[in-house]
Backbone:
């Protein structure tokens, strides 16, 4: 069975600063990896996904993530955060059947 | 994104009430899912439907009863709920029931049990 760990429960970052959210996964085969964002009162929106190929993946809203097989990681980055990036971020790993396992999430606060 | 619509957005009910949550997807997807999101816990998969057939019941108590009349609609019937059932219930859909298919989520129903 697969699992996901997001080590940081809460991150505070200044507007305009860079952001990196950590994600570690456990899965025996080639993982399908996703990052989702959830703004208050809303559902989850897909930011980006990785299946194979280039290990640096570009997503929406200026986010990117890098897959590192040796470290079982799929960290999310953004060079310069905006106040609207304040939200909860979820990393997820999909298995060969259909199950999507989510991490517990990282809450991002953006200060002016 | 309005691809997956959930109603109602908020629901307050007593422990003896019966209510239903509705989910509708306009994406032409064949798989639909119910998740429970509780504070500070990972999303919990409850049910999976593929081409209207239930393929997963993740040990969900019988007080939750899903229904999928067609590939576009999914219901969650609720009865005799407990206070610990208060949570955000999210519906999602994907093109196929495959791990590499991104799931598209609705905005959820915030359920409060009195």
Residues:
């Amino acid at each position: 069975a697969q699992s996901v760990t997001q080590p940081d429960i809460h991150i505070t970052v200044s507007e305009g600063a860079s952001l990196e959210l950590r994600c570690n996964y456990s899965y025996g085969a080639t993982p399908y990896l996703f990052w989702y964002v959830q703004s208050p009162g809303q559902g989850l929106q897909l930011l980006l996904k990785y299946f194979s190929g280039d290990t640096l993946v570009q997503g929406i809203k200026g986010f990117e993530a890098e897959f590192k097989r040796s470290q079982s990681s799929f960290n999310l980055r953004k060079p310069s955060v905006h106040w609207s990036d304040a939200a909860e971020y979820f990393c997820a790993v999909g298995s060969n059947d259909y199950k999507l396992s989510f991490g517990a999430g990282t809450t991002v606060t953006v200060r002016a | 994104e309005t691809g997956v619509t959930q109603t109602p957005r908020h629901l307050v009910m007593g422990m003896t009430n019966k209510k239903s949550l509705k989910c509708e997807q306009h994406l032409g997807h064949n798989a639909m899912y119910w998740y429970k999101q509780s504070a500070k816990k990972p999303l919990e998969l409850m049910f999976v439907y593929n081409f209207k057939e239930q393929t997963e019941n993740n040990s969900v108590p019988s007080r939750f009863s899903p229904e999928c009349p067609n590939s576009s609609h999914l219901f969650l019937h609720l009865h005799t709920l407990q206070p610990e059932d208060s949570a955000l219930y999210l519906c999602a859909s994907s093109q196929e029931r495959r791990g590499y298919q991104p799931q598209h989520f609705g905005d959820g129903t915030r359920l409060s049990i009195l």
Q: What stands out?
A: The interface with chain B takes residues 4, 9, 32, 34, 36, 41-46, 49, 51, 90, 94-105 of chain A (CB under 8 Å).
